[in-house]
Amino acid sequence: GDYMTYKKLVFKDNCIDFIRLIAAMIVMFSHSFRWFGVDKPIWGLYFTDGSVGVITFNVLSGFLIFSSWERFSNSETCIKKRIKKYAISRIFRIYPALIVSCILICILDIIVRRQNLIINMKTPLKIILYCVAAFQSEPIKGGYSNGVLWTLFNEIILYCLIPIFYPLLRALKKWQFGILIFACWGVNLADHFIINIPKTKYIFEILGGGGAFPIIMYEYLIGIFIFCFMDDIIPILRNSTFLITSIILWSIYYYVYSYTGILPQFGETHNAVFGITLPWIVMGIAYKFNIRFKYDISYGIYLYHMPIIQLLIDFTQKNSSCLPIVWILVILLSSISCIFIERPFIKLKSSFQ
Predict the structure, then answer these.
(1) Is the Cβ–Cβ distance between 121 and 180 less than 8 Å?
(2) How far apart, in whole angstroms, are the C-alpha atoms of residue 151 and residue 68?
(3) Beta carbons of 327 and 28 less than 8 angstroms apart
(4) 63 CB-contact burial (10 Å; exposed 0-12 / middle 13-18 / buried 19+)
(5) Furthest-apart CA pair in the chain: how many Å?
(6) Residue 326 CB burial class (10 angstroms; 0-12, 13-18, ≥19)
(7) Contact at 8 Å (CB) between 342 and 300?
(8) Which residues contact 225 (CB under 8 A, 6 or more apart)?
(9) What is the pLDDT of residues 277-319, one digit of tens each?
(10) Which of 13, 61, 162, 343 is 20 to 30 A distant from 91 in Cα terms?
(11) Mean pLDDT rounded to a whole number for the chain
(12) Rg (CA), the chain
């Protein structure tokens, strides 16, 4: 049918870049209001709720990372070459801007908060582990932090797991995949009880992101599920009637849950009802419109907004009128990062593959 070409057009004919930008802005707005001590405006609805942005990123990550591995699997018969291309692709996409953001935080710690890196961090090796390998939120104790990096840590786990479980996931039928998703969703719902089982908390911590990966894994799986069966699912999700109805119903639920206090919290980390329903709307919108950007600044917004927020708080003492300045500075820094750091390294990766 008309939709059989979607697998060849995963990175075209969609507005995934636009959705990533909106998700990054949502996270930035959420943290801005929270750290400046300002109540989220009701007019913002879910556009100022960080969990909405995180869920959006998670489903897109599952969808795109799985498709990336499949692309290399189809183009390379040699497993070593396949892993090499996949790893280089991920490393060149994530690490350059991440390392720069960590260096920026260290510079701010030295100049603004006058932290002594050697005293606090003990060794340069620990700085590297904190900033690059472990993705800790506070590379310097008492200094600036980048608390959003827990989500990046979970994404790195996903990078590593997809090549291992790709054959299994690809072999699943729709109903089997559905059972898997709901089983993982159940981990979110029952997390409060599971975490109290002896030694379970320790296992969760090892799995990364403060134990968050098992809790949010079902969101990644929904993205993977949609990719695996996209020829059947995308036409349904992008249908105008389905999309409009879903958005209206979801918005009503969100309003009642967030602004009335009538509905209880389901699950851990963020509302599990959001996590199981929002991904389908996100992917429907993604393939309903075709909006492409030459420059994708969403990753920069994700990386740089927290240090900028904390910097402005130091200088303005939580003057909420400075919020627009925060957003302008973040967008400016993210644009510079995209043009001079991210894009050059993305182009350079082909030389190493």
Answers:
(1) no
(2) 19
(3) yes
(4) buried
(5) 64
(6) buried
(7) yes
(8) 174, 177, 178, 181, 233
(9) 999 999 999 999 998 888 899 999 999 999 899 999 988 888 8
(10) 13
(11) 84
(12) 21
Structure tokens at 53: 């942005």
CB atoms within 10 A of CB 107: 12
As a whole number of angstroms, the distance between CA 205 and CA 195 comes to 10
What is d(CA 238, CA 275) in angstroms, rounded to the nearest whole number? 19
Burial 92-104 (b: 16+ CB within 10 A, else e): bbbebbbebbbeb
Answer for the pair 20, 296: CB distance below 8 angstroms, yes or no.
Answer: yes
Query: For the stretch 207-216, what's the b/e string if a residue is b when 16 or more beta carbons lie within 10 angstroms of its beta carbon?
Result: bbbebbbbbb
- C-alpha dist (Å) from residue 207 to 37, 136, 150, 155, 217: 32, 14, 12, 11, 11
pLDDT category, 63, cuts 50, 70, 90?
very high
pLDDT at 1 over 50: no
Q: Distance of CA 144 to CAs 125, 154, 336, Å? A: 19, 21, 21
> φ, ψ for residue 301 (rounded to 5)?
-60, -45
| Residue 116 falls in which region: left (phi positive, over 0), alpha (psi -120 to 50) or beta | beta
pLDDT digits (tens, 9 = 90+) for 111-163: 887 766 554 555 555 555 555 554 554 445 556 778 788 888 888 889 999 99
- Residue pair 308/329 in contact (Cβ under 8 Å)? The answer is yes
Rounded CA-CA distance 86/324 in Å is 39
152-166 pLDDT tens trace:
888 888 999 999 999
Tokens representing 240 are 């105008």
User: Pick from 340, 274, 351: which is nearest to 96 by CA?
Assistant: 340
- Per-residue pLDDT tens for 215-253? 899 999 999 999 999 989 999 999 999 999 999 999 999
Going 136 to 139 to 141 to 142, the CA torsion angle's sign is negative
Do 304 and 334 touch, CB atoms closer than 8 A?
yes
**Hey, what amino acid is at 114?**
R
Tokens linked to 284: 């429907």
Q: Which of 86, 72, 13, 36 is nearest to 308 (CA)?
A: 36
**140: which 2 tokens?**
């310097």
